[in-house]
Amino acid sequence: MQSQIKTAIITGASKGIGRALALLLAKNNFQLSIVARGQGELKDLAAEITEIGHRPLYFVGDVSDEAFAQQTIDKTAHTFQKID
Questions:
Q1: CB 82 within 8 A of CB 75
Q2: How many CB atoms are closer than 10 A to CB 76?
Q3: Residue 10 and which of 2, 18, 31, 63 are 20 to 30 A apart at CA?
Q4: Nearest to residue 22, comparing CAs of 62, 61, 51, 65?
């Protein structure tokens, strides 16, 4: 039987819609990688998601940097075994 837990990467996760989406998905049993340029706000979000019951991966950087984006994808896929 395949796991019901899904995995997502959320960019722009430290503020606004990205933050709200990350919290909503965490509450709906998603494994998450959260990505943003601001470390402080991203760490705060990671702590909130941990309180919900999940341990997100978080990456501080700019997804327009192709190497950074690929590293984020690779680490997420390796850690969670999939990306939905």
A1: no
A2: 22
A3: 2
A4: 51
- How far apart, in Å, are the Cα atoms of 81 and each of 22, 37, 71? 19, 25, 15
Q: CATH: 3.10.450.50, 3.40.50.720, 1.10.10.10, 3.40.50.1000. Which one for 6-80? A: 3.40.50.720
Q: One digit per residue, pLDDT tens: the chain, 84 residues?
A: 455 899 999 999 999 999 999 999 999 999 999 999 999 999 999 999 999 999 999 999 999 999 999 999 999 999 999 999
Phi-psi category of 44—alpha, beta or left, where left has phi over 0 and alpha has psi -120 to 50? alpha
Q: In what order do the strands lie in the sheet with 30-36?
A: 6-11, 30-36, 57-60
